[in-house]
Protein: PEGA domain-containing protein
Amino acid sequence: MRITAALFLIVLFIGAPSASILAQKEASVIIEKKIKTATYRPPSAGTLVVASNTPTGEVLVNSQPSGQLINGKFTKKLNPGRYRLEVRAADYENFTCDITITAGRSEAIIAELKPNFATLSIPNLRLRPTPKPAVFVDGQLLDEARWRLDGQRLEARISPPGTRKIQIRQGARAVYNATLKLEAATAKVEVAEPPKAILRIDSLPTARVYADDVYCGDVSADGSLVIEQLSPDETHRLRIEAERYRTFETDLTLTTEQPTLLRARLEAIIEFADNFTNLYKWDAPPGWAVEQQLLRVGGTNFAVGLPKEVGFRGCEINFDLRIAQGQRAAWVVRGRDERNGYVFILESPTPTTSRIDTYLYRDGVLGIPVQSDPLPLRFEARQWNRIRIVARDNKISHLITPSDSPDEISVALFQDRDKLFPYGAAGFASLADATFYVGGFVVCPEGAVCRPEIK
Structure:
């Protein structure tokens, strides 16, 4: 019994944790202290610490290689004394300074190397998928390790800086060619690009523009888009797209001599109509106005007005016409712009001697009529008459429903054998000392489903 009791007490004493240990366990705290004893020796060396603005480079002490920068850092033990420190890095000027190392201390040196290169950044290159481009500096091929592509942007490190001839080639095609003055810098610099071919497109607002199948942007609300990244002296394929219009495509060769202007009137595949509450849809000359949902065309000289950036090939044009002053009215068919198109002038000195004169309006010159057709009907100029014009291929025919009859009469047929204007807008022209009114203006493109009343 005594032995058993003694053993029980021993086990209880050994196995029972103390209150402090239990508290430590409950608090999840583990405290461990290790004490080491050693003979003290005074330091015999100091520490050189170098921080550099270059991630890599070579460190020399007293002209002897001593190690490499790693992530811009270098550390080395040195005996006390004076030393010559040198840091070298590719594309940087060497950094040198004198240092003094003291035993047991660290000597921190900030080695800021002066760049001996320029970082060239050229955006908006017109690169094709293949072949792989090559970069030349002063006629020498630049190592591929010194440049990279980020989409259509090229970034390159050029050493040493200065006035350098830069050329980027893709096969036999020169994508970029310029002589640039490059300055050393620690950060990326956007180099001013040499003069480039500039293309301005005037077209339908919100239309999408593509050059060589690369999206270039949308036409702005004012009807224009400027593209500056196209290579000069090359033929580019331009494509302009918009909903409810036929795609416009053309080939252009641009130069750096002056900006190129492309007027792209999109051919509608739905009707164009205007009830004349305002002139927002028109490039209207002075003297035009809207009165009671009618277009009043007037002016002191000849001037063409066309709908903004919309055109047609085959189409049917319908409008009501009343001449108020001057006994004349004029309209335009396939107006390429305000200076080119077919112009028709209706002269009505008397109801029985009226006629339609046809003009080839080119480069702002009206000239003389190429055809004159007397009207085979009684035309009351001051009454409302319905005009219908049908343009098919190179033929333009006129039909009139006079004010005093429900019958439509064919009055003129013009055929341009030279096919001078195969495409353009339908509009009107001001005449000196003449005023006329237009209502119910509708243009229906060939093949489109338009309003029943104009079929």
Observations:
- Helices lie at 2-15, 19-26.
